[in-house]
Each structure stands twice: as structure tokens, then as C-alpha cells.
Design brief:
Layout: H1 2-37, E1 43-47, H2 53-64, E2 68-71, H3 91-97, E3 117-123, H4 131-138, E4 146-152, H5 161-169, E5 174-175, E6 179-180, H6 187-197
Helix pairs in contact: 2-6
């Protein structure tokens, strides 16, 4: 009887552990969203990162600018096959060949009205910003807000991506010149840049 009770307790514990872990993850995500929603900061760093490179820079920039951080996540995550620029039928190639393409994003910044300055980061795709950045910008009224693009790239420069984003998706915002932030820029070097664009 004792062995049966012990087995039942062990089985129950095995069933409860995954749900407890998920509850912990949900609570952590909810806590992060709550802290962002309760923030009084006026600067936001919003970024899309396909491989993690732009994410690293964005986190350092948020620290340098004393800004809130928001990841622009696609509703349908990109796979390696989706990102194959050599494949003319890959998802990213098709999106970039269609200027009207607007990949869906998974969530919105709920308190966008509190931010007066928004750094928008992305990897350079086909010499410009990925179309998901257009989707992000077009979700909000950005009239009068200052937008500063930043990007990472394996070989090309920032090009006219800022001008193209302004014309297509946020013409009423105050756009400042952007910067290519390749490598692993230090928080101190990013602070210098942040000060220079104020």
C-alpha cells in the first residue's frame, strides 16, 4: 500500500512539474510586460532580429539610452529556409520583392503614446529594412515623434532605408539620420552616439 501511494504521489508530481514551469514562464513574461507598461521612460528601442545579432546591439543601445526595449516579433517566426536569400521562392525573398508586403507582428507596444523618441533596429535585407518594420511603424500614430533607425549588416550599408521607411510608413514622424551598428559596440560608444543625436 505504501508503494502504491508513493507511486501515485510521484505520478502526480510528474504531471504538475511542466505546468508549474509554464506558469513561471507566463508570470515572468507578464511581469516584463507590466514593468514596460508602467515605465515612465520616454525613449524606446524597438528591434527586429532574425539571427540574434540585432538583438544584442539593441539591448546595449537600450542601456546606453536609458530606454525601454521592445522586440518586434513576427507572428509566424522565420525559419532558416525562409531566410535563404539565394532561394528566389523563400519567404524573405518574396516579401522583399513586394513593397506592399506587411508580415504580421505578434504584439504591439501598448503605451506607444508615452515615447517621444524611438530607435528602430533591424538587419539590412536586400539593401533596406525588412518589410516587418513597415508593419510595426504603421500600427501607430507616430506624428511628431523622433525616429532614429539603426541596423546591422553582413556587407551592405544603411543605404536609404530610413528615407524609404519614412516615405512608406511614417511620413509625419521626425526622422533623424540612422547608423550602422556592426560588430559588438560597447555601451559607452553607444552612449556617445545617443548624445550626438539628441
Amino acid at each position: 500500500m505504501k508503494q502504491f501511494t508513493a507511486l501515485m504521489m510521484l505520478s502526480l508530481l510528474m504531471l504538475l512539474l511542466p505546468s508549474c514551469a509554464q506558469a513561471g514562464n507566463d508570470a515572468k513574461q507578464s511581469q516584463n510586460e507590466t514593468s514596460m507598461n508602467e515605465s515612465k521612460k520616454t525613449t524606446l528601442v524597438a528591434y527586429f532580429s532574425a539571427s540574434g545579432v540585432t538583438a544584442r546591439v539593441a539591448k546595449s543601445l537600450a542601456e546606453a539610452a536609458d530606454a525601454d526595449l521592445f522586440e518586434i516579433k513576427p507572428e509566424q517566426p522565420y525559419t532558416n529556409a525562409d531566410l535563404d536569400w539565394n532561394d528566389k521562392q523563400s519567404r524573405s525573398t518574396l516579401e522583399m520583392n513586394d513593397k506592399q508586403s506587411r508580415p504580421a507582428v505578434a504584439s504591439k507596444v501598448e503605451n506607444m503614446e508615452q515615447y517621444s523618441t524611438i530607435y528602430v533596429g533591424f538587419p539590412i535585407w536586400w539593401y533596406t529594412a525588412p518589410r516587418i518594420i513597415n508593419t510595426f511603424l504603421e500600427q501607430y500614430d507616430l506624428t511628431g515623434k523622433t525616429i532614429i533607425p539603426f541596423a546591422t549588416s553582413g556587407g551592405s550599408g544603411l543605404g536609404k532605408s530610413g528615407d524609404e521607411l519614412k516615405a512608406a510608413s511614417a511620413p509625419n514622424a521626425n526622422w533623424l539620420p540612422g547608423k550602422l551598428l556592426n560588430g559588438n559596440p560597447s555601451v559607452d560608444s553607444l552612449k556617445t552616439w545617443v548624445q550626438s543625436v539628441k
